[in-house]
Amino acid sequence: MFAAHSQIGLMSKHLTSKMLILVACICLWGSQALADENPLDVVKTGTDQVIKILKQSPQDARARREKIRAVVDKYFDYDGVSRLALGPQWNNQPPEKQQEFSRDFSRLLFGKYVDSIEKYTNQKITYNQRQVTPDHFVVESTVMDQEGPVHIDYALHLKNGKWGVYDVSVEGLSLVVNYRSQFDQMLASGSFDDVLAMLKQQVSQVCGTKAC
Q1: Which range (81-90, 115-124, 177-186) has the least confidence?
Q2: What DSSP string describes 168-203?
């Protein structure tokens, strides 16, 4: 298990910070999206809602996190991103362990996101979108950070009549692919229970007593 824990730490701090901002902007889903709504508008409206919450409640209180999580939960496809990040092992797990993985993985991403997003609340963000298939779009955004522009792509699919985000790429690096590689390494030398234990440890470190 110790080897597994060291493997998860291989992700660079630079990539983790920017990628999880952006799961940060997984903030993206706060409107009452309909099937015919423009995916770009879903991303922009949701992002604006999260930034508004951050500005109205500058202190990192439980109530603020709960409000942000309520926005994020509406249009982030946690099961979808969990399936993709875990890969074939997802289908090998019973439903209760799938739910446990999805719950803890989403808490980990959200906790890291909240810790990173505050510094980006005053940055200008521009948006563009491109269609991949009728049911899949990529919304391309650029955050004008003080250190230079950060390019963030949100992959959305149409599910149950709503647009949901199932992957985020920062500077061309996919969140799902990155975690998939780490989980594959851990499972090559350990068990699925090792992955669950690692996630719980990470959630405890990132969230503590805060709402995640």
Answers
A1: 115-124
A2: EEETTEEHHHHHHHHHHHHHHHS-HHHHHHHHHHHH
Rounded to whole angstroms, how far apart are CA atoms 16 and 197? 20
Q: So what's the pLDDT on residue 155?
A: 95
pTM: 0.77
The model's confidence at residue 18, banded by pLDDT at 50, 70 and 90, is: low
Query: How far apart are the C-alpha atoms of 112 and 193, rounded to whole Å?
Result: 22
Task: Out of 3.10.450.710, 1.10.443.10, 1.20.1530.20, 3.30.70.240, select the CATH number for domain 2-207.
Answer: 3.10.450.710
Best CA proximity match to 84, nearest among 25, 164, 193? 164
Is residue 17 a contact partner of residue 206, using CB atoms and an 8 Å limit?
A: no
How confident is the model at residue 7, as a pLDDT?
Answer: 45
Give me the pLDDT at residue 74, please: 85
Amino acid residing at 28: L
HSE toward the beta carbon, residue 175, CA cutoff 13 A: 32
